[in-house]
Design a protein that fits this description.
The protein is an alpha/beta fold. The chain contains eight helices and eleven strands. It has a single domain, classed as Alpha-Beta Barrel (TIM Barrel), CATH 3.20.20.70. It has an eight-stranded parallel β-barrel, surrounded by four helices. β7 and β8 form a beta hairpin. The chain starts with a strand and ends in a 7-residue tail after the last helix.
Length: about 230
Amino acid sequence: MLIIPVVDIKNGVVVHASGGNRSTYQPIESLLCSTSKPEDVIRAMIKVTEKMNPAHLFYIADLDAIESNGDNFQLISDLCLKFRGITFWIDAGFQSKEQLENWKQIPNIQPVIGSESHKDLGTLKYLLSSETILSLDFRNGKLLGPKELLNRSDLWPEKIIVMALDAVGCGKGVAHDLINLIRHQKLDNKIFAAGGVRSKADLHQLEQTGIEGVLLATALHTGKLAFH
């Protein structure tokens, strides 16, 4: 099972995502490094996850873009150039093909299409393809975005993130019910869990479900998980 480090960027720095209430997010305070500069955080996370991340994947959320409050496009572009050996999964609140094409100029990214950024299936279904990843975003067990998407597994790409936003960064535990729901919808998809991982016991439980990987941030920064 892959461990995929998560970097949440807001106003040019890495922030601690907690509970999905982005207006309260503060610059990260980490045991891994002494700054919240994205480049420093990425280098530190590479060191602690390299054994568990052989595919060299990172997930970056451009929180300003997701919240339609500007973006960190240039910063993230520069990071991708500095770390050419990494494939970055980027969620930048993609809502149009034009926006998607702008980001796809960066060679080592794969766009993440978040359900929360869409009100209906109209544009969403045109953005989903073999080149994109679908993030099914949940809060309190309910899908954010078009509810009918849960019944349209024919639209789902190969890779799916099950994102429990209310569990992110606050130690609530993994939303196994949501993961099982999505797995049973389409067994041949590659499922990635995000939110709520607290310990290696949580990772072991997730591995037993047969999912492809898990997205991690807080448990790494706090030292609750180490892979040396």
